[in-house]
C-alpha cells in the first residue's frame, strides 16, 4: 500500500474521504451504562458527557425529560464549551445552559433562551434563529448510536442483526479505548491467522462449554464437535494447527471469513466469522454466544471498541460480565489499565512458560491491544510485506477503497448504508467447530442453524453469498426505525 492510500483509509475527520464514508453509517457513541449513577456517581448529579467522535467535539446529555441530546460542543454564541453547561432540572424547564451568557438548548439543538438579550419578542426571534447542530440518536442493545450524515438527511434503518434483535435479557454491551487508528483496530479482528500465534497458551484449562461470562477468554471455551469423544479447547487447536486454509466470500453485509485447520484425514476445524462493513466483526465466544465488535473512530489516533455479547441460550449475567471487564477498562472513560505506559503488562517469565506473547492469560483483549498500539498511532502500511495469509486484509482494504470512490462519485456505499438493503440483513452466523473433513460446509451451517433454532428468541436467516464484489446503490434512504 502506498502512502496516499494509507492516508486515505486512516483519516476520518470532517471533509476527509474516509470520514465522509463513515458518515453513511450509524456510529456508537456511548453505553447506556455510562449514565448509570451506580457505575458513575457523577451521572446521578449531572448526566452530561464530553465526547469526541469522527474528529468532532460533542456533548451528550440526558435532559430532565429523560431524552438524550447530542450536540456540537462549541456554543453557537461565542464558542464556549457546552460540556461544562448547566443541566437544568424539570422545574427549570430542562435543557442544557451555557454558563458563559446563559443561552439554553433543548436536546434537539433548538435555542430556548438568551437571557441577556432584549425582552420578548426580540429575544424570542433570536432564539428561533439559533439552532445548534444536533445528531439523531437511537438506542440499540444498550448502546446509543448517532447519525453524522448531512444535517436533516434521513439515515438508513438499522439491520436486524442478532445483536440488535436479541432481547435485553440476552445481550450485554461494553467498550474500551485503544490508542491507535480505527483501521488497525478493526483489522486484527478479521485476521484469521493471528490466533495461532498471538493468543497461544502453552497449557490448556479444562474445556468449558459455558464460558460466556469469562472476560477475554473465548479461546478457553471448547469448540463444537469432538475428536475421539473429546472436546478440544480453542487454545489447543490454535496451538497445534497454525497454518489455516483461509477463504472469504463477499456477502451483502461485507465478507464471510472461513479458516480451516486440518486436524486429521477425517476431521477439520472450521471457524466462520463475519466482517460487517465498514468496521464491525462478529465472532463466536462459545457454542451459544457471539461477540459483535464495532470500532468507533474517535479521531485519527484513537478508537473505542464496542462489544455486544449475544446469547442464544439463557439470559446473560450482566453484573458479572460488567464487573469482570471493568477491571481492565474502568469507568467512566473505559481507559485500559494496560498500555504502552506499562509495556502492556509484559512478563518475560510468562512468555517462556505459559503464553506466546507474555501479556496475561486472563484477558486476550490485551494481546490484540498490544498488536494494534505497538504499530504506532497510525500504522505505516508502506513498510508492510503482506503474504497469502493476509488475503482477508487485502480484500477488506480494496473494498474500503472502492466504497470511498463510490461516495466521492455521489453514490451509496455497501452494506448497512444502503436503505434498500439494510432491513433485509440478518444474522450473520458464526461457528467454531470440529467438522467432518469432507463436509465442513454442511457442518457449520447445520451447527449455526441448530444454535439459532434452540434460542428462546430468533430471526430466520438466509446467508446467501453474493456472486461478485459487493455492489453499491444510489437508492434513496428511508427513515430510521426506532
How far apart the termini lie comes to 40 Å
What percent of residues adopt helix (DSSP H or I)?
10-25%
Low-pLDDT regions: 463-482
Global morphology: elongated
What's this model, at a glance?
This protein is of the alpha+beta class. Helix content is 22%, strand content 23%.
Q: Can you walk through the features of this model?
A:
With 482 residues, the protein is α+β, with helices and mostly antiparallel strands. The protein folds into 2 domains: 27-140, Rieske Iron-sulfur Protein, CATH 2.102.10; 153-453, no CATH class. 22% of the residues lie in helices and 23% in strands. It contains 13 helices and 20 strands. It has helices at 3-10, 17-22, 42-45, 122-129, 162-165, 182-189, 234-240, 318-326, 348-353, 365-373, 391-408, 419-422, 440-453; strands spanning 27-31, 48-53, 56-62, 68-72, 86-87, 96-97, 104-105, 111-113, 137-140, 143-146, 160-161, 171-178, 245-251, 254-262, 267-276, 280-286, 289-299, 302-311, 426-427, 431-436. The strands form 5 sheets. Strands 12, 13, 14, 15, 16, 17, 18 and 20 form an 8-stranded antiparallel β-sheet that branches. A hairpin with a 4-residue loop joins strand 14 (254-262) and strand 15 (267-276). Helix 6 crosses helix 10 (365-373). The protein is elongated, with a radius of gyration of 23 Å. The two termini are 40 Å apart.
